[in-house]
Amino acid sequence: MAETKLSSFKDERWSLHGMTALVTGGTRGIGYAIAEELAEFGASVHICARKQEDVDKCLEEWKRKGFRITGSVCDVLSRDQRQNLMKNVASIFNGKLNILINNVGTSIPKNLIDYTAEDVSTIMGTNFESCYHLCQLAYPLLKASGYGSIVFISSIAGLKAFPLSSIYASSKGAMNQFTKNVALEWAKDNIRANAVAPGPIKTVLLDSFMVCMLC
C-alpha cells in the first residue's frame, strides 16, 4: 500500500485508517484531488463519474500508487443512478459510511435572460438536488458508522455575484443553506456537515466558464 502522510506519532490524530468515504465526481479536478488525499491518509474511498473510461483510468492510476479506491458509473442528475450508487456503496462498505463528499457540479454560463427551463433543471438538479438526495440516501450509512461527516463543495459564487452565473450561484446558495439545516438536524446522530466555498480553481469547469467570458 502507498505510504500515508502520517510522519510521526503526533500526526496520528489525522489518520483516516478504518474510515470509508464517497466522493462524487472523483475523476477530475477538485474531486480527484480529494479522493487521492483521503486515500493518502488511509481511508477506503469510492468515487463515481459519468463515464466508465474516466473511472477506469483513475482507478488504474490509483492502483499503481497502492490506494484503496473503488469506483462506479453514476450520473448524479439521475435519481435512479443515485439510488444504485448508494446501494453499491452500502455493499462495498458493509452498510457504513464515514465521509460523504458532495463534489459534483456543473455550470452553463449565460446571461440571466438567456437561461432556458432545461438549463435551470440541469444546473439545479446536478448541483443541489443530487446533494440533497444523496444525503437522504447516505443518512442510515452515516448514522450506522457512529461518526459521519458530510462536506459540500460550494463556491464563492454562492456568496458573491459574478456575471454569467445566476443559476449556478443560486444552486450554491441553496447548498450553503442546506448545509446549515443538515448540521442542525443530524448533530444528534453524530453527523457533521460543512460547506467549502472555493474561489477560482483551474479545472475543466473553470476553463469552460472563462471561454464563455471571452466570447
From TrEMBL:
Q: Name one GO molecular function term.
A: oxidoreductase activity
Output the InterPro entries linked to this UniProt entry.
Answer: NAD(P)-bd_dom_sf (IPR036291), Sc_DH/Rdtase_CS (IPR020904), SDR_fam (IPR002347), TR (IPR045000)
Task: Tell me the first and last residues of the signal peptide.
Answer: none
Keywords of the record = NADP, Oxidoreductase
Name of one Pfam family that matches:
adh_short
**PANTHER family (alphabetical):** ENOYL-(ACYL CARRIER) REDUCTASE, TROPINONE REDUCTASE
Can you tell me which family this protein belongs to?
A: Belongs to the short-chain dehydrogenases/reductases (SDR) family. SDR65C subfamily.
Name-wise, this protein is Tropinone reductase I
Which organism does this record belong to?
A: Sphenostylis stenocarpa
